[in-house]
User: Fold this.
Amino acid sequence: MSVMTDTVLLNAKIPPGPLEDKWDNHKASVKLVSPANKRKYTIIVVGTGLAGASAAASLAELGYNVLNFCIQDSPRRAHSVAAQGGINAAKNYQNDGDSVFRLFYDTIKGGDYRAREANVYRLAQLSVQIIDQAVAQGVPFAREYGGYLANRSFGGAQVSRTFYARGQTGQQLLLGAYSALMRQVDAGRVKLLPRREMLDLVIIDGRARGIICRNLVTGELEAYAADAVCLATGGYSTVFFLSTNAVNSNATAIWRAYKKGAMFGNPCFTQIHPTCLPESYQGQSKLTLMSESLRNDGRVWVPKKKGDTRPPNEIPEDERDYFLERRYPAFGNLVPRDIASRAAKAVCDAGFGVGSTGRAVYLDFADAIKRLGVDVIRERYGNLFAMYHEITGEDPYKVPMRIYPAPHYTMGGLWVDYNLMTTIPGLYALGEANFSDHGANRLGASALMQGLADGYFIIPVTIGDFLAEHRPDGLKADHPAFKEVIRNVEDNVKRLLSINGKRTVREYWWELGRIMWDNVGMSRNAEGLKKAISDIRALREEYWQNVRVPGSAEDLNKSLELAGRVADFLELGELMARDALDREESCGGHFREEYQTPNGEALRRDDLFCHVSVWEYKGEGNDPVRHKEPLVFEVVKPSQRSYK
Amino acid sequence: MAMKYHLRIWRQAGPDEPGRFEDYTVDNIEPDMSFLEMLDILNEQLTKEGKEPVAFDSDCREGICGMCGLVIDGMAHGPRRLTTTCELRMRHFPDGATITVEPFRADAFPVLKDLVVDRSAFDRIIAAGGYISVNTGSAPDANAIPIPKPIAEEAMDAAACIGCGACVAACPNASAALFTAAKISHLALLPQGHPERERRVQRMVAQMDLEGFGNCSNHGECEAACPKGISILNIARMRREFIRANTRGSAV
Ligand SMILES: Cc1cc2nc3c(=O)[nH]c(=O)nc-3n(C[C@H](O)[C@H](O)[C@H](O)COP(=O)(O)OP(=O)(O)OC[C@H]3O[C@@H](n4cnc5c(N)ncnc54)[C@H](O)[C@@H]3O)c2cc1C
Ligand code: FES
Assistant:
């Protein structure tokens, strides 16, 4: 399969000057909207996760009118709430040598040199202010006895820069952002529109001017006009069906924006998290994440003998293979996520996996309990152990946990420039929805940081630069452009309901998930990817002829909601496979079997692929076109990652 | 081991429609399956039979978002303590059991459809002062104000509320006292929350009453049903905050 490419090189609009001055210089040079004029502008923010809630609150504080949408019944339930482990910040409160530069460097390296230096540096700079902001809002981070903030080392970092609130860091940060948001609702500057699903973007004169939503209670299609639109709609790991994400997580908003001309960056970059509960029964709806912090004290192993069915505690020490410690003596169980995941897959592929399906490895705390005592382990991980026990019925204080990698985070997303603007003027993407600062692999505790940097600190500055050039024109949602888009959305909804075939939406979603997991998952090859593309196409064709969507369009209909999302996944899955096929190298979470070092590590090809792949939609039935944003490293020199 | 259950489920077409129980049977349920996964299976079955699936809310399916919530055999979130509906596993129900499933009922939580209710009253309570007024960018260094660890821990205990509404569903008076008290406590415990504490408690309590929640008469059912173990001591703290605010004047 040949890929149509173009010579368009995307311009990321990176400000001039030395790396450490770029953001300050940029802030000093952007255009401003005067305080008196801000209230004449309306900004749509879709999403109320960390990125959306922080953006909506901060924009409203500046004086803009904000319309804020989410699928759930309350903004506080956005999927960010589920983040457990923590949030990074270069505070160096522990005096262990951390700095903005080190956080920047670790993020660039962890992302396997596929992220933009200027963005990542800014992210590291802003990390410091995020913690200040959260504490001022009342986020109850963990503290030491002296009353100062506690930190831990997370996900293989060699400094302790992760702030946390027990195992509920995402919840507490989200409740902080949500409270800031509700304060603006109280002040009348944010209008909250929950139980709404954005189903299309409205473009007028080449600019994003509004959205079409389905009211998920009444079924009505509603139109909203604005001066700019921000999508903070989260990631799309649910394309795999089983993932650590919430069941309503979806790609619909960004996918429909893509089909309206917003280009998609690195769609194939997916993070597979190493410590999740394995798939163990039919009908399972998610793979619960067991926080990565467990790898600080747990040891990962499999039996040395293939197909060893003895209970783990009966397998003697010398018959166990602690494969991470063996392969990566310097980092051991704390290697980055992509490496830990692939290593687990490799031992299971080779027949050493455990559990009823043979697709799991042990995470063992026996040594840690011996060394530190059960009380310390309970204090550190009590809630996680209880959760594991409740789900599996097994007590991890006595038997090792069984874990396996699961789709967790999508580094890919809508391409954005330094201002977070997509290729559609006036359309912005924030948080996990954009192609992000994490390159080909995200470090633990960095997504919360990025979502909040985007929402609290970046968009409030950069959106003004655009709005200052586009005076408010009082556009209303009765403009004919909205009617036309509503008609298309309505046709699509009607079409889904009218097929009345034999198979349920979930069956298709499950089947797509299989194709994705087997071929576009932890390791990929050309043959599998080509097969995935043709299988997905066939499945998509069948879907539109044989899916059964019960109920009507005129009321609350969860099957219909899901049907629209799965229709989009059936298109996005193909783009992910195409992108993975096109990127003939291995980097971070993207592992192409054809490109590996003699000892099985990812082999980057910087001469050919040191770029962001940016895909442009070319209409139904036509192949998308791949453009490039070349990545230039001025400060960090790309090298082969080594964690040995 | 696959199990079989008889389900009596509340069906209601819309907010203004009458509701009724309907009986269903599901088969091939695994013990490790969650209660909601069991309902997923029922819905697949209903779809194939050309019937309308049962509407219920859920999102994270790991007990943190507060989106799910069913009254199972008369108990909010079912029979297990400290467990949300999505975390509840079928191994706790004997094979062949009949299970009754209803929505969280309260005047302030109108049913939207089947098992889905409208809990937006909670958001309005938070909007009435459940926040600290700090604009983005104006915060001092995070370590500028040390907070004793026990206080931070206590604030965290209260802040752990997931806003699911089980406390309201479990309360004979359908009171939202535990929910409201958890937020008031969380913010009253922290020095950052002090400047607004009087106004906050007065406005939030007034909003809670305005939404049509009942009064708290110390039954304690809320604490027993709370999947996050939020203590009713928070209600006592809310009362103290309320009295304190009123004796200091400045009513809103
Ligand atoms: C289990 C788990 C644990 C994690 N732990 C950590 C951690 O410890 N540290 C860390 O840094 N990161 C962690 N992550 C990653 C991190 O939580 C997410 O990347 C991040 O929270 C995403 O935030 P967001 O604001 O971009 O999107 P989300 O929080 O996913 O919010 C998306 C919002 O968009 C809305 N939405 C979506 N589509 C539409 C639509 N079509 N119309 C209207 N609204 C829509 C949703 O309703 C929601 O409000 C974890 C992720 C998972 C799954
Ligand atoms: S679905 Fe999130 S708490 Fe149950």
Remarks:
- The two ends of chain A are 37 Å apart (CA to CA).
- Chain A has 17 helices and 22 strands.
